[in-house]
Amino acid sequence: MLAARVVPCLDIKDGRVVKGVRFQELRDAGDPVENAAAYEAQGADEIVLLDVSATPEGRGHAVDTVRAVRSVLSIPLTVGGGVRRESDAGRLLDAGADKVGVNTAAVARPDLIADISSRFGSQCTVLAVDAARNATGWEVVVRSGAERTGLDVVEWCRKATARGAGEILLTSWDRDGTRDGYDVDLVAAVAESVSVPVIASGGAARSQHLVAALQAGASAALVASILHDGDTTVSDLKAGLSRAGITVRR
Questions:
Q1: How many H helices and E strands in the chain?
Q2: CA-closest candidate to residue 201, choices 231, 228, 223, 174
Q3: Which residues are annotated as catalytic?
Q4: Rounded to an integer, what distance in angstroms lies between the CA atom of residue 25 and that of residue 227?
Q5: Model confidence over 30-85: pLDDT tens digits?
Q6: Rounded mean pLDDT of 222-247?
Q7: What DSSP character marks residue 248?
Q8: Per-residue confidence (pLDDT) for residue 185, from 0 to 100
Q9: Could you say which DSSP state residue 45 is in?
């Protein structure tokens, strides 16, 4: 049995870690290098680094931040934000990323997924999906949640994996920062429709929430606020998973 992963997320704006609710009202949550090093020491399986202002500001990811975070890590690093073309992905991989996430630009031009996958491999290609509930299920939202696309989330994940996405980073826009728990129905719907790993994101407050997401079909659980605010640690979350019978790396 593959071990479930616990993945801290660092949302970056102006070189600092930030966190909000539904991508709004961002507050400072520390230094990315210090946070990344601390979370690895606690037992994180990998780190996700998302430049949340790159797309709204029409720029690429802050590569210097990627290099600085990579310099203190020995675990895998996924980087997203501002990736619009294959060359953007290449710069992030050169700076130390192991995987690159694409979101808004991939919705606008789905062939971007195939471009990155064919050049660098599907194992490096992560589709980041921000999902909001609608009358029939969930629709993709882009530009840090500011724009609804009408695109069905499950169908989009199927199409993206067919184009070469090797992993899905699935964030519930409705649950982001709320601490109400992951949207397990969303997780299950996507996990059942694709053959690649799914990282559940949005809403974690305690280890039981991670258990529920993993039991719904996720391969990993992304956490942010509860770590940044010092409410818990990666090691404590993993202990909770282990008590629930879920295999983790200790």
A1: 10, 12
A2: 223
A3: 11, 130
A4: 18
A5: 899 999 999 999 999 999 999 876 655 554 557 889 999 999 999 999 999 889 99
A6: 96
A7: B
A8: 98
A9: S
